[in-house]
Amino acid sequence: MLKQLVVALVKGLNSNPAVIIKKITDFGVSAIMEDYAIKHHFPHIENMSKSESLSFRTGDEDVVDLTSNKYATWVVEIDERTASMIARWQGVGFTHGVMNTDNMSILGLTIDYGPFGFLDAFDPKFTPNTTDLPGRRYCFANQPDIGLWNLAQFTTTLEATHLINDREANYALERYGSRFMADYQDIMTKNLSLPKYNKKLIGKLLTNMAVDKVDYTNFFRTLSNIKEDTSILDEDLIVPLKSVLLDIGKERKEAWTSWLKTYIHELSTSGTTDDERKTLMNTVNPKHVIRNYLCQTTIDAAEIGDLGEVRMLLKLLEHPFDEQPGMEKYARLPPTWAYRPGVCMLSCSSWVSSSIAQMIELQKKIDFGLHSVTIITLDLFF
Fold first, then answer.
1. Where are the alpha helices (DSSP H) in the chain?
2. Is residue 102 flagged as an active site residue?
3. Which of 30, 46, 265, 373 has the greatest count of CB atoms below 10 A from its CB?
4. Distance between CA 103 and CA 98 in Å, rounded?
5. How far is residue 92's CA from residue 217's CA, in Å, rounded to a whole number?
6. Is the pTM for the entire model greater than 0.85?
């Protein structure tokens, strides 16, 4: 049967998605794939009892219990896992770069050997992918919407194969939005150690960071040094952030001072000491991230036989939230040479053929003991 399906799909490659979905439906393969995925990766769904959290009303109609349809329950969980994953991306300033459906997992995992990047200079429109530059479809700011779009394609397939209905599909997508906002707000609140979510304060902060192209990772880590002391003179408020607010003029200093005064006022209502807050913030804001220029320098060293940097970088990233004395250089901003295409930005093909391919070979040489993981991507169900 699978051979017949492959032949049918190949013949339908130039057809529209509806034609391809019909071929899958005709062979009854969709349900087989879903059942396999649920059995091996979501076994709890098979034995799920009625849950109020998986019931919903649609207008004047009766309550719909998703547990009566395991596929509806399944797609809700996939949507929520994906929402939580992308919220965590946004919280640490991570940009995936190639959010095609084949690079999204039903398990809510970050996958793809692609041109990812962290926000060395905060820009909502940043993309680390040179092939994404014309429209910046997969830029940092677009990631939540692209995640939703990908899941919409997924649920459309399940609808077309009659595994879920329209109401169940819409509800699952609504749950994506709700989960993303809840998780993102919680993450940003913890990043700043606020007593509660403050949309205006966080929005103004991100605006300031974008104007001054502030390094995302280093800023939030350094912010933990701010003291909850309303008696500090205005001109001294910005002193703890000098290392991350580079070359800003008088007007920008005033903007940051204004924000800091509001922030410190919020902190004063939290009932947390400076030391307690610093500890909490440093458990959610990493000291070290895998910057592209670090990968490049590691590869360059390995190519001439020095594998020490590979081992050092891996050891460092095993504990990204720890200070790790002597490792300060790994938290530095990228050097000037790192801003050229091929380092800070990559195409899909160049990244696969160079950086990742080389790192994989290095891993084999050092014998890191990699474990295989089953990853099922969204597009397998299209």
1. 2-11, 17-26, 29-41, 43-46, 70-92, 143-160, 166-192, 199-211, 216-223, 234-237, 250-267, 274-281, 292-303, 308-317, 348-350, 357-366
2. yes
3. 30
4. 7
5. 7
6. no
Domain residue extents for the chain: 1-41, 52-285+371-382, 292-370
Structure tokens that stand for 142 in this block: 């677009």
The region that residue 206 occupies, defined by phi over 0 for left and psi between -120 and 50 for alpha, beta otherwise, is alpha
142/94 Cα distance (integer angstroms) = 12
Residue 96: Cβ-neighbour burial (10 angstroms; 0-12, 13-18, 19+) = buried
CB 369 within 8 A of CB 363: no
Is 117 in a helix, a strand, or coil?
Answer: strand
Q: Whole-angstrom Cα distance, residue 20 to residue 293?
A: 42
Q: Which two tokens stand for residue 197?
A: 């979510």
Type of residue numbered 303: E
User: 214-273 pLDDT, tens per residue?
Assistant: 999 999 999 999 999 989 999 999 999 999 999 899 999 999 999 999 999 999 999 999
